[in-house]
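--- STAGE predict ---
source: upstream dedup step, 1 unique chain passed
mode: sequence only
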Amino acid sequence: MTIHGGFEPVFCTIVPPHVLDRLARAEDPALAETARRTLQRDAFERTQRRLTTVLGAPAVPSSPEGRPRRTVHDARHGTDLPGHKVRGEGDAPGTDATVNRAYAGLGATFDLFLRAFGRDSIDGDGLPLNATVHYDRDYNNAFWNGEQMVFGDGDGEIFLDFTLPIDVIGHELAHGVTQYTANLTYFGQPGALNESLSDVFGALIKQYTLGQTAAEADWLIGAGLLAPRVTGRALRSMKAPGTAYDDDVLGKDPQPATMDGFVRTGRDNGGVHINSGIPNHAFYLAATALGGHAWERAGQVWYDVLTGGELKEQALFADFATLTVKAARERFGDGEELDAVSKAWERVGVRTL
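--- STAGE serialize ---
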């Protein structure tokens, strides 16, 4: 499958740089050192991703149509990727719970995209799904590097094992879907849309796995990832952006829920992990207004826009919102779906054109 609009270098982490920057200034030297090493490792991997983009990634054979092909590797606390193969497609679960969670999360992501949207893996053409666990020591992040998933074990003080929340796995793999479709530029509003789409599909994967309706879901991203000492519930809240955590070490969740709180910054690629709260909240409002399973109507509209070919790499919130209104009308007509989507964007202060 051809990537829409050319290939943008992709290196996307679940923990935002502003969180790690805050930790790197912690009074506790152990916490600060771990955060600094994570930031340094992220910077190195980001550079490697750019080099791979220039040189070209190796060709990967597709899997049989409609069936996943998962491989999980163990880095054994090193940083060489992919590491040692520990579980392949169809292999029985082993004794390492982290390996088993990664394998299950890859499968859940594959299932959601196939069964809800008819998409065969993240590229739409049976791309094998690869993951590496036990990456580095006390590594406080998980990332998609354009080719595979990588999970740290966390330091146990601030973050736990990054395979624990299934939506973290889904979030990172969804960056791959965006990479192979709209290829949204990873800066400013397009970058915030990129992040938001990963949160949306990460949340849908969790809800699909748990069989939850929009009303039953917690709408948290990364619930279960924060260690007991942290005052917080998750990394982000789609229901109430800005309320996921408020901690002496981590600081307060900076996400806005509406355009009134839009943050202008040169950090974090123009605030991609911060301002994503606005489109996140719009999706939550649309999905809960419609009720039922969120992937069936609201999720379908968002997927239609992501994959429809009209979403430009430099799209702003208003561009995306306008396309969701169009997609809702085209798929469902002038009914409650159109009304829910239109009102959701109105409530977060994004005008449709």
